[in-house]
Specification:
Strand content: 15-25%
Helix content: 40-55%
Distance between the termini: 150 Å
Bound molecules: adenosine-5'-diphosphate
Number of helices: 13
Amino acid sequence: MKDFVPDPVEPESFPADPRSLPHAERWLAAIVESSDDAILIESLTGRIASWNAAARRIFGYEAEEAIGQPVSLLAWPGEEQRSEGFLEQLRRGQRVEHFEVARRHKSGRKIFVSLSLSPIVDGSGAIVGIAKIARDITERKTAEEALAEQQLRLAALMEQEARARAEALAEHRFRDLIESAPDAILQVDARGRIVIANRTAETMFGYSHDELMAVNVDALAPEANRANHAERRKDFAAAGETRPMGQGLDLYAQRKDGTQFPVEISLSPVQTESGTYVTAVIRDVTERKQIEQWVHTLQESYVTELAARHQEAERLNQLKSEFMASISHELRTPLHTIIGFAELLGEEANGPLNEKQRRFLHHIQSDSEHLLGLINDVLDLSRIEAGGLNLHTEPLSVREVVCEAVNALLPYAASKSVSLRGSDDLDHRVVADPMRLRQILSNLIHNGVKFTPAGGKVWVEAAADEGFVTITVSDTGVGIPAKECERIFDKFYQVGFTPAGGREGTGLGLTICRHLVEMQGGKIWVESRLRQGSRFHFTLPASHL
Ligand code: ADP
């Protein structure tokens, strides 16, 4: 190529006619002229300086039209800058091989060329122009483009097909789902004609598919309800909202053979171009109803059984209490005889007793008294529990009853060296059963003395407050641990030992006291401090008489 332009020349003056060139050059120029590729030279000012026959054919311009024109003549909008980027590469004397680019034919048509660029340098190595060889690849490119377009179209087609297939698949699945649903599914038009029915609907109602398609949906309601069903159906279509059918009612459906079965139905309206349809999902609840019925029956028999057992338990309890009452009574009679005769012996009316006999007699007397107390407690509690204890309440002087109880226990207190007294503020009146009030007081005072060491004190006070009188029995005894203060009122509950170290009593006294106080409209409680003493309070309704 270097030989092709031996002298540094002004590009515009590149000879266009090979015949004006010397022999070797003419020869070279002939090659250029006969090349299948367009060969043109671009001057440094960007103008076309040389133009061969192939250039004429490829771009459509005659040499006279092209030479001297700016190369932008051939540019395709958007691609004109591409070759300029290679200038740096060319300056370094390198070729730029084959890049494909769009160009414009004289007719305005788009053509594609594969371009190679080479610098044209003068003797000093300075670039004086660019030789461009352009091969027409329009045909190939067009074919490629057509192919690409075809491929795109094919891909789009395939996509469409896939989409259609997916829809078909979804529809198929949906149908499968409906078909295999455990509920009967029906779609009904505005007139009640069945338009869709799944397999479950066939088996549930005992119709074939064709038969279902031929009957009105009202025929699936029990005979007696059909007229009503048709009415309701119209109401539902008018309201047009999804809801369960016959809320709160026991719904039934009827099979082809006339038998009926309980159902649950959910309705939803479906608006389509051809009108309003209603989809009904129907569940056969026979089994569930049976289970419900079964549970109900079971529950009823359980309740009946429970009531019977309760009654039986009450009867046995009553029997037990009656038995306890009668056995206590039977025990008391001989015990009274023993006590009576022991007393007679003690009087020594039939001759004096020696010291040993007196001691034996004392044992007989104290144990008999103890036994009598125990039997009395058991008898009382049995009577209370059997509801057989009757109270005879009347207005009473607290002082009177307290004095009686205190006096009766003075000997016992004296025997234990415990001081016992009623205080001065006892002038109150209550409504109570005198015998039972005395029993309560005796119990509390007896306990007070029992749980107080020698030298201690027991005393009884009373105070009126808001329609009640509170009577308090206090002692300076062993006291009761705080956590036991509630439990001591339970049956047979005993905290520990008496100061004498033994266990006396039955653990029934306070239980009986609580029953007796509550039966008379009052309540009982205790305040206590260990080793300092206890205060048992109970209330009774005040009397103004
Ligand atoms: P008991 O026959 O054992 O006295 P109670 O029901 O009368 O039965 O008393 C239950 C328990 O309460 C007694 O065993 C004793 O532990 C405790 N208790 C009752 N009164 C007193 C008291 N004044 N001081 C200390 N402990 C008492």
